[in-house]
Amino acid sequence: MTQACLVHAHLHPSEDAALSTLSTIHPRLALFGTEQRGHTLPVCDHYAGVEARMRKSLALQAEMAAQTGGRPVFDVTLDLEDGAPVGGEHEQALLVADLITSPANACERVGARVHAPSHPRFEDDIDTLIRHAGARLAYLMVPKVSDEQEAKRAVEAIKAARLKHGVGHIVPVHVLIENHRALQEVAAIAALPGVESLSFGLMDFVSEHHGAIPASAMGAQGQFSHPLVLRAKLEIAAACHAARITPSHCVVTEFKDARALGVAAGRASRELGYTRMWSIHPDQIPVIVDAFAPVAAEVDDAVEILTAAQRAHWAPTSHRGSLHDRASYRHYWHVLERAWLTGQPLPAEIESTFFA
Fold first, then answer.
1. Using the 8-state DSSP alphabet, how is residue 231 labeled?
2. 356 to 26, 277, 333: CA distances (angstroms)
3. CB burial class (10 A; 0-12, 13-18, 19+) of residue 279?
4. pTM for the structure as a whole
5. What domain range includes position 330?
6. Cβ atoms of residues 130 and 165 within 8 Å
7. pLDDT tens sequence across 142-186
8. C or N: which end of the chain has fewer Cβ atoms within 10 Å?
């Protein structure tokens, strides 16, 4: 008799009935105490700042979502910082707001990167976007925060704009870590209420070292071998996991080298603990999604282990000679959830029961 059966055999009839009900509880509630999705975001964050590319990105998002039952496998971030021409910042903000509120935003997963809090256009960026598109704005990316206090002021400014314009839902804030002080205070920044994700600004971070880090550390391979860059990535990922928010990996600028991108994305996911990554070219999106998706064997194990766990009312079970309990169930739930997020095929019963 298995351990789960032994536990079940000594229950009072009323307890037996209660456990029968438990078997139908969703894994999020059984394993985490909540049915909310928490900090899970699509694994790819695609950036576009030129109008033609922004429209193409939104069309591609809808096209790929249609292949996965309507759920988007990547986010689109429309760029005000690098996308706006000098002197045309306000017009760029209005254009982005129009795109977010247009039918082109079919998936409701479109955010925007604003100027840095120290930039004179920061307040106008957030006011314009929230006034015109706040109801459909998925998040705001804030770059170049200097420290925790500046990140906090940015979060509060976004909240104030939301309240001013009567936007009922919280607009999540994503923060880009690009300098020494922000890295030193990364745990405090990650813990700020309203922050949903942290990203690593590789090129600005390397430049902050005034030539002490070689340019090769900005490449697809060098960024995984230079100790100072690797340390920064690990500290950001660890801070995010401690705060239960999403760590988002930096870009690979060699956008035509699919193999180099795939290797980098795989290392970011498998070795450094990142659950999301930036894309700067449409061709990068499927490569990133594939790299962050669990392999088929992992998904098969997750399906078998979680199905058995639910039948056992989340008591310990065995699978191929190994013991599993709620600690490993939580791990395999994340595997299954990542498979769903990346559009991997799942058994119809699993999809209808867990992800309907």
1. H
2. 11, 26, 15
3. buried
4. 0.88
5. 24-33+295-354
6. yes
7. 999 999 999 999 999 999 999 999 999 999 999 999 999 999 999
8. C
